[in-house]
Give the backbone structure.
Amino acid sequence: MKIVITGPKCSGKSPIGRLLSQRVSLPFFETDEIIEQLFTQETGKALSCRAICSEYGEDFFRNYERRAVKQVVQYDSCVISTGGSTLLDKDSKELLRKGSVLVLLYASAFKLLERVSKKGFPAFLKDKKNPQDLFVAMANLVVETLKPFADIVIDSSEMDLDKTLNVLITNLRGIPELASIVY
């Protein structure tokens, strides 16, 4: 069974995914890393997801994102961290939902803005007026859209990584298919 961790940008998906992967001894895959690998293999250029989106546009990037999802769902018994809006795509959501436990991480708008200010706003918002408002609206859309589909929902606003991981593991222990690997 796959454990898919999703949520808005800066909600802690990748760090929690990596920590969980180590804790339960399962391989870890991040869709953003797969996008970058696919892009490099095909173009010979090593660019970050932010640079791919900035240079080639959001539609181009979303095509690579769908391809990354198709690649990663071939694995079983793994931890997958998705991009912030990956599961807003219907096909990606269906693929990632099959044979998976879906974990939605989110945080308050204040906390997400605090975190994103350190990393930078997503490339598709860089030339927009009021990127903060658009970022919060996108984060809210992700949470509202995915909450009904999530098996586990965790608000990481007031928790550090260790506490968030412990809450996640406690929740995963309640899923019979994962009881043997989550200790």
Summary: The chain has one domain: 2-163. Strands lie at 2-6, 28-30, 79-81, 100-106, 152-155. The longest strand covers residues 100-106. The chain has a mean pLDDT of 90.
